[in-house]
Amino acid sequence: MQIWHMEPFPCGDRRLPHHVFPPKKITTTQLAQLAGVQYYKVDLDDTASMKKRLSAVKTEKNVTFTDVFTVSPTMLDFDDKMEQFYEPQIQKDDVISLVVDGTCYYDVEPEDDSWIRVQLEKGDLIVIPKGLSHRFTTTPQNFVKIQRFFSRKVEGTQG
Questions:
Q1: Cβ(157)–Cβ(65) under 8 Å?
Q2: Distance between the two ends of the chain, CA-based, in angstroms?
Q3: Which stretch of DSSP H or E encloses residue 110?
Q4: pLDDT, tens digit, 9 for 90 and up, residues 85-108
Q5: Residue 148: closest CA among 139, 157, 140
Q6: What pairs with residue 5 in β-bridges?
């Protein structure tokens, strides 16, 4: 996982890093302090460790449903979906995502027009607190598989 402050008004391809200049990276501790975002590294190759971490997060966040969501150019209406994902949104529940494969960005906005970009890769688990403005996009690889966790049934999810 890498985290940095984004340029205020990024132009061009949103799948690029869009660092401020000079780059201003921050730590997971600073991310938690600034935005309330939690981060965990999950060893997907160690089944016992993975189950223990996921069980703890599921219990703490009252997770009852999960699904696996793949974002790639093969999905129906890919460009339209990417536009939708990049629109800032605020959820009523925590957004909990584990990257199973590939890479992506979650951008969070702890203050108006002040975005922090979080680059996630395989094994990264992020918890974005409810009420925090955020958005999502892929990296130039255009591929990510995410396991999503929900505290209640959401349309299109599997139990």
A1: yes
A2: 28
A3: strand 95-111
A4: 999 999 999 999 999 999 999 999
A5: 157
A6: 116
Nearest to 38 by CA among 121, 115, 108: 108
Please state, rounded to an integer, the average pLDDT across all residues of the chain: 92
Coil/strand/helix, residue 25: strand
Between CA 127 and CA 92 the distance in angstroms is 13
Whether residue 119 is predicted with pLDDT greater than 70 in this model: the reply is yes
Two tokens, residue 71: 């974002």
Q: Give me the percent of the chain exceeding a pLDDT of 70.
A: 96
Residues in the chain: 159
Pairwise CA distance, residues 67 & 133, whole Å: 22
Q: How many CA atoms lie within 13 A of 26 on its CB side?
A: 20
